[in-house]
Design a protein that fits this description.
The structure holds 2 protein chains of 2 kinds. By secondary structure, chain A is an alpha/beta fold. Helices cover 31% and strands 20% of the residues of chain A. Chain A has a single domain, classed as Aldolase class I (TIM Barrel, Alpha-Beta Barrel), CATH 3.20.20. Chain A has helices at 82-94, 110-123, 149-162, 178-188, 227-240, 254-263, 272-276, 280-294; strands at 10-12, 15-17, 21-23, 46-51, 64-67, 71-74, 101-105, 128-132, 166-171, 192-195, 200-202, 218-222, 245-248, 265-270. Chain A has a 5-stranded parallel beta sheet with strand order 4-7-8-9-10. By secondary structure, chain B is of the alpha/beta class. In chain B, 22% of the residues lie in helices and 32% in strands. Chain B is built from 7 helices and 16 strands. Chain B has a 7-stranded antiparallel beta sheet. A 7-stranded mixed beta sheet of chain B has the order 11-10-9-8-12-13-16. A two-stranded antiparallel ribbon of chain B has the order 14-15. The chains are: A alpha/beta, B alpha/beta.
Chain lengths: 310, 293
């Protein structure tokens, strides 16, 4: 089968993506920064930075440290220009591409999630909302929304009520089982689930005795070594709910992306690897295409979840 | 952005010792060489494995024309960690993935008569192409170029001949006095400005280790001397995508030099401290912008 005959499009909610590959929020700025190196039209979707109601300062330096042996810690603290400036200054550029724009929305309360969503909905040019349930729930004692099923439900429901845009619930099943969390989000109206483990790590400089992350001490652990963990999360989420799963975590090439598709993910997000090599998005799309063609797969949707469980 | 940036497969043309711990890597990168400006940097993937995981950023020492007719960029680096150790083993013919040019370079202010470069250690290499511009301006415009280079000791001295070739006064110093003047680069700067009474009519461009940058910024601020410095920071993407390579900046200082409406930098309302991205807002900052711990 010819590679260019493979249909790579996938559907998530009401959104049709030309291919299943997108960057992960927080690794792709506002899109514009990368546009000199990545053709944004090649992407299945453009994921922009976590966006809050008010602009956010972010954490002090140092915000990341590379750990020998291919991991890193990262703690940016959602530095962003806020939803109003996003709509005014960043969104117009993104409207110029034939690629859906997905905004990662980060609130500290149900009300904030609703207000940000309404603003984005009204702005036009945003195709989907990624609900960032890793945010601390300030009124709920600062624990992540994902750690509290009731809070997770309330956020998703409030966002659902505020918009008919496609909703991806980005959940952090670090404390709660991913299957339960996925079901709760689906029931509350999410169109897709993207599970991302967000365990915090630390690193100490043994020469100085100081934290290698400065005042932050902790940072979210990331890197290619976490792929097996995330692949399992995607698989379990896909087993638990009928809405699409977006796989994310440790994808370093098209082979990893195919693995996620087989496990049940309908689309994938690339984070770390895109920071290292901006060509990865296109290479992943082309790799999936060739792989599918080599197996006579005419539409990529056919392989989603085709993992042969024993 | 609107700025030209390239991702290119650059062939290693040379990788030579400058002294015991410093090396110079020459990379065939004609597209980058054609547009890079003084103080800008490139982000280098030192191999194709996951160790080291991320690229390593380097300011470019200079652009050279090579024998096979390729325009090349030269990077001066100190072998200090996993990334630079990997680089030290590179041989001519190998190919590296390089992204650049990145960041905002130096903006030279020729309204001041005395144009002073202050380089510390390996960081001095970031000043050379600026020195070329300033040397040209000195010939045509009547300004004066002064280069102050500080090194730890005699065996760490490098690039002396190159900086001397720019003309103007070149003052070398070592921390232990084993070569040139004894003292840190900023001590030499202080003495020079004192001896020539030129505080009112000079501008400083600096690149060196964090400690030197901090001392230099404090000195310039106190004396009211305008100056810019190139910050060094570990980076991930190097292009503004991840918001990790930040340094602390002061609102009053930033407002003097930048249009806040076009910046990602937010400021704490009480402390008026914000976080600027070294890759995108820098790596060159004005001396009154950066807050050093």
């Amino acid at each position: 089968m010819r590679a260019d005959a493979v249909d790579l499009s996938v559907t998530i909610g009401s959104l049709r993506l030309k291919n299943p590959v997108m960057p992960a929020s927080g690794t792709f700025g506002y899109g514009e920064e990368l546009a000199g190196l990545v053709d944004l039209n090649d992407l299945g979707a453009i994921l922009v930075k976590g966006t809050t109601l008010e602009p956010r300062l972010g954490n002090p330096p140092d915000r990341f440290v590379e750990i020998a042996g291919c991991a890193f810690l990262m703690y940016v603290g959602l530095q962003n220009v806020g939803v109003d400036r996003f709509i005014e200054e960043k969104l117009p550029f993104l409207r110029g591409f034939d690629t859906p724009v997905v905004v990662n929305v980060a609130g500290e309360s149900v009300e904030e999630f609703r207000l940000i969503t309404e603003a984005l909905h009204d702005a036009g040019g945003v195709s989907a909302i990624e609900i960032n349930l890793a945010c601390p729930n300030v009124s709920g004692g600062g624990l992540a929304f994902s750690a509290d099923l009731r809070a997770a439900h309330d956020v998703v429901r409030a966002v659902r009520d505020a918009t008919d845009l496609t909703l991806i619930a980005k959940v952090t099943p670090t404390l709660v089982d991913v299957r339960t969390l996925a079901r709760v989000c689906a029931e509350a109206g999410a169109d897709a689930i993207c599970p991302i483990w967000s365990g915090m790590g630390m690193a100490i400089d043994i020469d100085t005795g100081l934290s290698r992350l400065g005042a932050n001490i902790r940072g979210a652990v990331g890197g290619p070594g976490l792929k097996p963990l995330h692949l399992r999360l995607a698989y379990e989420a896909a087993q638990a709910v009928s809405i699409p799963v977006v796989g994310c975590g440790g994808i370093g090439g098209w082979q990893d992306a195919v693995e996620y598709l087989l496990a049940g993910a309908r689309a994938v997000q690339i984070g770390t690897a895109g920071l290292i090599d901006p060509r990865i998005y296109r290479e992943t799309v082309e790799g999936i295409r060739s792989w599918a063609a080599g197996r006579g797969v005419s539409a990529i949707g056919q392989v989603v979840g085709s993992f042969k469980a024993p | 952005m609107g700025k030209e940036v390239f991702q290119t497969q650059a062939q290693v043309l040379a990788n030579e010792h400058l002294n015991q711990e410093h090396r110079r890597l020459t990379l065939g990168a004609p597209e980058i060489a054609a547009v890079i400006r003084p103080g800008q940097f490139v982000n280098v993937r030192v191999n194709q494995t996951n160790d080291p995981l991320f690229r390593r950023p380097f300011t470019v020492f200079r652009v050279v024309d090579t024998d096979p007719g390729t325009r090349a960029i030269e990077i001066v680096y100190r072998v200090t960690g996993r990334g630079t150790r990997t680089m030290s083993a590179l041989r001519p013919g190998q190919v590296l993935d390089v992204i650049g040019p990145l960041g905002n370079g130096f903006r030279w202010d020729l309204s001041k008569r005395v144009q002073i470069l202050v380089g510390g250690g390996c960081g001095a290499s970031a000043l050379f192409t600026l020195g070329r511009e300033l040397s040209q301006a000195a010939i045509t415009g009547g300004s004066e170029l002064v280069t102050i280079l500080g090194f730890r000791s005699r065996d760490a001295v490098m690039l002396e001949a190159e900086f001397r070739s720019l003309g103007g006064e070149v003052i070398l110093g070592t921390d232990d006095g084993s070569y040139g003047d004894k003292g840190m680069a900023v001590d030499i700067l202080r003495d020079f400005i004192g001896a020539h009474a030129c505080a009112e009519d000079c501008v400083v461009y600096a690149s060196g280790p964090q400690k030197m940058n901090r001392t230099l910024a404090a000195f310039c601020r106190k004396q009211g001397i305008p100056g810019q410095l190139a910050m060094e920071k570990h980076m991930l993407c190097g292009i503004g995508g991840c918001f990790t390579c930040v340094c602390e900046v002061d609102k009053a200082g930033v407002l003097k030099h930048r249009d806040l409406a076009k910046s990602h930098i937010q400021f704490d309302p009480q402390s008026e401290i914000g976080y600027a991205m070294v890759c995108q807002d820098g790596p060159v900052f004005d001396v009154d912008e950066v807050v050093f711990e």
